[in-house]
Amino acid sequence: MSDHELAARLATEAGALLLDVRAELAEASAQDRKAAGDQRSHDFLLAALTEQRPDDAVLSEEGVDDPVRLSARRVWIVDPLDGTREFSELGRTDWAVHVALWEGGELVAGAVALPAQGVTLATPTVPVPPAAPGAPRVVVSRTRPPAVALEVKDALGGELVEMGSAGAKVASVVQGISDVYVHAGGQYEWDSAAPVAVARAAGLHTSRIDGSPLVYNQRDSKLPDLIVCRPELADAVLAVTAR
């Protein structure tokens, strides 16, 4: 099984597990659903990667960071449940599972599962999103949109699309539901590694908000800002964010 196939399979299977957890704990508290989803998905992914790729390191949001990853040749960067809040709210579909592989300084494979939508986006082949007529659509958090995203919306004469998890937001650009995702104010490598791998495979622009490259498997796993957008909008977006 190739790394691309493994990433897609594991993200999809973790997503199916999460749907089961959601159904099982439908009458439980939102906090219980969050905790169970995070832990069970993490345990599944770690066990599967240990079995399938025993020589590779793993960086997971829910795991203890092992410094050995810094000298490893291959590191799987996973977010077992991206959008825990949305997952805990029964009926919401804007949450995701991220599975990415970093090798030799680059993201080489990745998959983003959107379990409640029945969709998994995975490298190496991701359809290019169609251009949409009308004002550019800027996807933002439904609870705390960053000021820079609002500035981009105003500069482009765009409109806002509100959504939950980072993975769902990037996926919305890949799927042609939105055109621009700008984030600033705090994220970690696992929040963006798989979404960025998928976005790059779809031919989208990806960078930090100052235009510099997104770099993974660093000592400090914080990666606080990013841009994912249609390539023809990149210059206009960076003209705002690079300030």
Automatic annotation (TrEMBL):
Tell me if Transmembrane is a UniProt keyword of this record: no
Q: Establish whether keyword Magnesium is in the entry.
A: yes
Q: Gene3D superfamilies attached here?
A: 3.40.190.80, Fructose-1,6-Bisphosphatase, subunit A, domain 1 (3.30.540.10)
Any Pfam family from its record, for instance, is Inositol_P
Reaction(s) catalysed by this chain, per the record, are: adenosine 3',5'-bisphosphate + H2O = AMP + phosphate
GO biological-process terms attached to the record: 3'-phosphoadenosine 5'-phosphosulfate metabolic process; sulfate assimilation
The record's annotation in InterPro entries points to: CysQ/Inositol_MonoPase, Inositol_monoP_metal-BS, Inositol_monophosphatase-like
Keyword line: Hydrolase, Magnesium, Metal-binding
Question: Coiled-coil region(s) at which residues?
Answer: none
| TM segment ranges | none
- Which co-factors does it depend on? Mg(2+)
**Molecular function terms from GO:** 3'(2'),5'-bisphosphate nucleotidase activity; metal ion binding
Q: Which residues bind Mg(2+)?
A: 61, 79, 81-82, 191
Protein name (record): 3'(2'),5-bisphosphonucleoside 3'(2')-phosphohydrolase
